[in-house]
């Protein structure tokens, strides 16, 4: 539904409209531009194998970004998601002997425990989210390395099928990512919890005065983030056929935050755009792939992501001032 744009004093109406348009649809424009660029200048980009590879690589980023979107929707942030992925792969390697399902359950419990700790620090102790999750980021990565000090190969038929198998040509990891995106979108848009989440992000004091369970919402949000990060770690391990807590999940928090912010979820809370988050994750993956395919250093990927974040935050800042 179209909304009227009321420019703030001193800002031309056309500029205000442009900023709002970029905030709402800029991520889709970015994905379209990158697709057209690669179609024109990247060899074999339109091959089925390339699209399959891109989809498989973006799946863990998307899953982590879904949890990050929930956290940012409450005006928080979760810097521990990459470390939770590392913990997940360590627990997977340790408990895989009991079967893949048991290993998955242990990994999910580990992710939920980290999320519970984050949520408790934020909701009950009153620690700022960036500080609480930074502490867990460091501590959980250390725990993952204590549990599994070095890379270890994963030999399990079920894990191999999960990592490389497909259903009617669509990889299992992609199907899982899509299913989780639909589930999170439904929770945000169609459930009481989703409305409570947005109310808490919009104004925590007002939500408390209205009698909403603010602490419970915060706990659930951080637990969801931890569980989704654990799922991403599990799927990444299945795809790589190896557990490597040293490198798995490194800078994942950067990619997830970028996908969420570029997708239109405001850092000031009160808004969660799951469709935009999906497009944001696709944008980051396409950007990375484009730079790699054109023989640019991986360092340029980080620089490009930083530039994208600055632009997205600027657009959100301008929108918030109107």
From TrEMBL:
<protein>
    <submittedName>
        <fullName>ATPase</fullName>
    </submittedName>
</protein>
<feature type="transmembrane region" description="Helical">
    <location>
        <begin position="121"/>
        <end position="148"/>
    </location>
</feature>
<feature type="transmembrane region" description="Helical">
    <location>
        <begin position="94"/>
        <end position="114"/>
    </location>
</feature>
<feature type="transmembrane region" description="Helical">
    <location>
        <begin position="58"/>
        <end position="74"/>
    </location>
</feature>
<keyword id="KW-1133">Transmembrane helix</keyword>
<feature type="transmembrane region" description="Helical">
    <location>
        <begin position="217"/>
        <end position="236"/>
    </location>
</feature>
<feature type="transmembrane region" description="Helical">
    <location>
        <begin position="298"/>
        <end position="316"/>
    </location>
</feature>
<keyword id="KW-1003">Cell membrane</keyword>
<feature type="transmembrane region" description="Helical">
    <location>
        <begin position="25"/>
        <end position="46"/>
    </location>
</feature>
<dbReference type="GO" id="GO:0022857">
    <property type="term" value="F:transmembrane transporter activity"/>
</dbReference>
<feature type="transmembrane region" description="Helical">
    <location>
        <begin position="168"/>
        <end position="188"/>
    </location>
</feature>
<keyword id="KW-0812">Transmembrane</keyword>
<dbReference type="GO" id="GO:0005886">
    <property type="term" value="C:plasma membrane"/>
</dbReference>
<dbReference type="Pfam" id="PF02653">
    <property type="entry name" value="BPD_transp_2"/>
</dbReference>
<keyword id="KW-0472">Membrane</keyword>
<dbReference type="InterPro" id="IPR001851">
    <property type="entry name" value="ABC_transp_permease"/>
</dbReference>
């Amino acid at each position: 539904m179209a909304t009227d744009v009321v420019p703030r004093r001193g800002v031309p109406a056309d500029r205000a409209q442009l900023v709002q348009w970029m905030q709402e649809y800029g991520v889709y424009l970015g994905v379209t531009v990158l697709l057209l660029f690669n179609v024109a200048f990247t060899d074999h980009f339109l091959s089925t194998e390339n699209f399959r590879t891109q989809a498989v690589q973006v799946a863990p980023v998307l899953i982590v970004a879904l949890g990050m979107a929930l956290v940012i929707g409450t005006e928080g942030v979760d810097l521990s998601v990459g470390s939770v992925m590392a913990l997940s792969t360590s627990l997977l390697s340790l408990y895989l002997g009991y079967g893949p399902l048991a290993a998955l359950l242990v990994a999910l419990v580990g992710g939920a425990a980290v999320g519970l700790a984050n949520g408790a620090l934020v909701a009950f102790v009153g620690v700022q989210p960036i500080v609480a999750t930074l502490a867990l980021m460091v501590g959980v990565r250390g725990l993952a390395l204590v549990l599994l000090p070095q890379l270890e190969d994963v030999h399990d038929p079920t894990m191999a099928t999960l990592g490389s198998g497909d259903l009617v040509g669509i990889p299992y990891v992609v199907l899982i990512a899509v299913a989780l995106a639909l589930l999170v979108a439904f929770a945000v848009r169609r459930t009481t919890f989703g409305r409570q989440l947005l109310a808490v992000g919009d104004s925590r004091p007002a939500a408390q005065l209205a009698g909403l369970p603010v602490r419970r919402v915060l706990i659930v949000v951080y637990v969801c983030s931890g569980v989704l990060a654990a799922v991403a770690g599990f799927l990444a391990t299945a795809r790589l056929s190896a557990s490597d807590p040293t490198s798995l999940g490194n800078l994942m928090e950067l990619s997830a935050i970028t996908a969420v912010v570029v997708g239109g979820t405001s850092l000031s809370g009160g808004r969660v755009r799951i469709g935009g988050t999906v497009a944001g994750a696709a944008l980051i993956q396409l950007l990375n792939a484009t730079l790699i395919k054109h023989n640019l250093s991986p360092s340029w990927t980080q620089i490009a992501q930083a530039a994208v974040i600055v632009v997205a935050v600027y657009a959100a800042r301008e929108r918030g001032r109107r």
